[in-house]
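Q: What residues go here?
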């Protein structure tokens, strides 16, 4: 059992030294973050659309929508 754990640790250390694997993992993490943020912003905009018609919160929703759209186009 100890030999099995030792082999697993050696395998993980070898993978950490491989720059291609680290590059791929970083690329996938960055891409996942961008896609996730886009989905979250899209969902927030879609959920707030019906509330624009209300006089009390309409201007607030418009400002939030403009801010979210502006922040996503800067990236």
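A:
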């Amino acid at each position: 059992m100890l030999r099995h754990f030792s082999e697993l640790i050696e395998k993980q250390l070898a993978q950490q030294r491989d720059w291609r694997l680290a590059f791929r993992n970083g690329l996938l993490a960055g891409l996942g973050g961008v896609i996730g943020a886009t989905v979250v912003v899209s969902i927030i905009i879609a959920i707030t659309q019906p509330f624009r018609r209300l006089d009390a919160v309409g201007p607030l929703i418009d400002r939030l929508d403009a801010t979210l759209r502006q922040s996503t186009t800067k990236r």
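A: Context that may help when evaluating the design: Residues 21 and 58 are 48 Å apart (CA to CA). DSSP finds three helices and no strands in the chain.
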